[in-house]
Amino acid sequence: MDQNPELAQQITAKVVERMERSKTQIPIGVSNRHAHLSQDHWDVLFGKDTQPRKFRAVKQPGFWAAYETIKIEGPKGEVNNIRLVAPHRPKTQIEISKTDASVLGLRPPVRDSGQLDGSAPVRIIGPKGTIEIKEGLIIARRHIHFHPLEAQAMGVKDGEVVRVRAGTGGPRALIFEDVLIRVSDKFSLELHLDTDEANAAWVKSGDIVNIC
Amino acid sequence: MDQNPELAQQITAKVVERMERSKTQIPIGVSNRHAHLSQDHWDVLFGKDTQPRKFRAVKQPGFWAAYETIKIEGPKGEVNNIRLVAPHRPKTQIEISKTDASVLGLRPPVRDSGQLDGSAPVRIIGPKGTIEIKEGLIIARRHIHFHPLEAQAMGVKDGEVVRVRAGTGGPRALIFEDVLIRVSDKFSLELHLDTDEANAAWVKSGDIVNIC
Hints:
2 copies of one chain form a homodimer.
Chain A: H1 5-23, E1 26-31, E2 34-36, H2 39-46, E3 54-57, E4 64-73, E5 78-86, E6 93-95, H3 98-104, E7 110-111, E8 120-125, E9 130-140, E10 143-146, H4 148-154, E11 161-166, E12 174-183, E13 190-194, H5 195-201, E14 208-211
Parallel strand pairs in A: 1-13, 2-5, 6-9, 7-9, 10-12
Antiparallel strand pairs in A: 1-14, 2-6, 3-4, 4-5, 4-8, 8-9, 10-13, 11-12, 11-14
């Protein structure tokens, strides 16, 4: 190190950046199973000339959970009460846990939201009709939402992956590898996990994690 | 280090031990929800003068899964098809996932098998009767079974805790902290996870993990 002050400086800067990251308190948001429908699919499942009704806000700005729910069916079983998130999207996307997938007897892949090519098929049942979609069923990849200002302060970039320590002090502490960072001025700082991941780490919405 | 050859030796020995540990391939056994009943509870739920019938062996020597299943109920819902593991035990113990606990609306603690003091109450329904137990519902603490010879080879002791890297190369790699080591000449090398933990790491029975 004495012979290489430049390297020492680089390492020091990296260590300082890591210390800064690891100090930041990141709240968890646990995503329960939910569905985004296309307008066409809504029309079949709930009827044309009807609209979803707002149940409550979700943290992602502009979106809200609806009173309406759907049922989905696979070869082994069904999962009820999958809440719709509105407004509608161009393509139907249903996000479930691996536990749900086992109940259904289906094998959806782990995917980033919107990456639906080759995802799993499923039958959707609404009060007014039934649809078989060829793809759209996924298990959401865990990720952290950052506002650009937060990302800048912590020295992270959109698309980067980090490690996250969760459940520290509890009975099931663990480190999630490969946690994707998503940066958008519509986001605020939050780690999104599904119910299997939250249960495995013994954490719930609002609990704090750190990048490590 | 030059001034302290003893310390250097200790560190080297520790590093060699860690390298040895991390090379050993440990298979996963995923535990689905299941129940051990006391004889008294069996009698009420299934009827005196009846016996559980063997469905298949489980990896733990001397125990087997029965054809018989029970249903359990909590304030929010019920969970069906909880398979019995025989032979009976002195105390009834029901092991479920946190996902199941959410369905039931109950809050069982994470516990080592047999540590039932102050665990959760639950209502058990069998074909011949119903029981309310005051305690016995738990979420099993993850652990690794070692035969004494395997434990000796890896330099680990009963009751020690280690870190385990799981799901490497998959979409949800993670590191489980605080994994308990259990050593018994009735055990063979296996990491026991519940379904939430297996789903969070995207692993299944027979997949390989390493201590890290």
